[in-house]
Amino acid sequence: xxxxxxxxxxxxxxxxxxxxxxxxxxxxxxxxxxxxxxxxxxxxxxxxxxxxxxxxxxxxxxxxxxxxxxxxxxxxxxxxxxxxxxxxxx
Length: 90
Description:
This protein is α+β, with helices and mostly antiparallel strands. The protein has three helices and four strands. The chain has a domain at 29-89. The chain has helices spanning 14-23, 34-39, 57-70; strands at 28-30, 41-46, 51-56, 87-89. 13% of the residues are buried.
């Protein structure tokens, strides 16, 4: 099962919410705004510092589900690669 956490603190900025998630060591951070909604592609921040761009939501769900099913301690998306739909940024 995948879980989501949405923190809607009107006083907190987007940057503050991302920082809070990183401090809590959340494995995957995805911010969905107007740009992502219009393009259908996501930008994902991984706990290890990698940023993946151009990931389709179905690809993201499939990768995270595979990681959960295999009970792998890693974050997926290979070392330095983002899978078929996305590009990793160091």
